[in-house]
Amino acid sequence: MRSAETAKRAWEKFKALSKEVSVASSSPVVSPTLNGSVRGRLFVSHNEKTGLSVNVGMVGSCRPTRECSRYCYGLWGPASFPLAVRRYAENLNCFALLARAPIAELEFEADVLAARTVFLGQDFIRWNGVGDLVPGAVRLISVFASRHPGIQVWVSTRKPELAARIEQHESVHLMLSSDRSTKPVDLVAMRALIKARSPYAFLAYTQLGPDDVPPPDVSIVFLEHCGSKRAGWEPDPRACAATISMELASSRAHANACADCRRCFDVKARRAGRRR
Ligand code: SF4
């Protein structure tokens, strides 16, 4: 784990970069397109583990726990490079526009996002690989899910109050992210939402050491890791295999890990608790 001082420096760097992107303007941010004829505002990221991901600027969306500011991968590596930080901040601006936009604009953005997902051969999309929910994203996810029920939406969040405002659909999977420093009041709200939305909402937990015992109602445990450097302790049976030390037989490489495993966005896979 990095020191608190190092984490603080990284966070300050983030704040400075994010300030360079102005707050919501009326000129849309245009993302790369399928063939040049279909244009959307959102920038969609891709990585070899989780596939497509809609990310937003951490400054302006995240409500970090005391611990997550020290282990969050958004502060380090490719997700922290200036170009990525700017794009995530631009997505945040886009969501500020979508929070007030007419429904037709949301439908258009949802259709472009769905087309790009299908074009890349995925039947799921991850939300908040970096960053957290904001009101414009809540609106877009709801519209997306109602128009494209065949594409699973995997929403990672620490904000149960905003997640509860996403329309209920069988394709929307709310992953409430916690760690040992999540405030009790947030945990209560997360569990209430999970109860109301089960089995389409579940608790995830980042484990920060072998003595850090995940609560029994956690569905998925992420072992603390930093890029390719993974935790070396004996994994919890609920652990994400792509976070387990590569020296252990139960681990797996990042390539296509989520497409193969599906526990975070497939009820059957989650119930089976399987690792692949
Ligand atoms: S548990 Fe499975 S779907 Fe979830 S992050 Fe890990 S590999 Fe991906």
Word description of this protein:
The chain has 276 residues and is α/β, with parallel strands linked by helices. It has one domain. Helices cover 35% and strands 15% of the residues. The strands form two sheets. Strands 1-2-3-4-5-6-7 form a seven-stranded mixed sheet, with helices on one face. Helix 6 links the parallel strand 4 and strand 5 (172-178). Helix 3 crosses helix 5 (135-147) and helix 4 (103-119) packs across helix 5. The protein binds iron/sulfur cluster. Residues 220, 240, 242, 257-258, 261-264 line the site of iron/sulfur cluster.
Briefly characterize the structure.
Helix content is 35%, strand content 15%. By secondary structure, it is an alpha/beta fold. α6 links the parallel β4 and β5.
Task: Name the average pLDDT.
Answer: 86
Tally of individual domains: 1
Please report the distance between the alpha carbons of the first and last residues.
Answer: 27 Å
Q: Give the DSSP E fraction (strand runs of 2 or more residues).
A: 15-25%
Strand order, main sheet: write it out.
Answer: 1-2-3-4-5-6-7
Q: What's the Cα radius of gyration?
A: 18 Å
Oligomer state of the chains in this structure: single chain
According to DSSP, the number of beta strands is 9
Structural class comes to alpha/beta
- Compute the number of helices: 9
* Helical content (DSSP H or I, runs of 4+): 25-40%
Biggest sheet statistics: 7 strands, mixed
Which molecules are bound in this entry? iron/sulfur cluster
- Morphology call: globular
What are the segments in which pLDDT stays under 50 over at least 5 consecutive residues?
Answer: 21-38
Order of helices and strands: HEEHHHEHEHEHEEEEHH
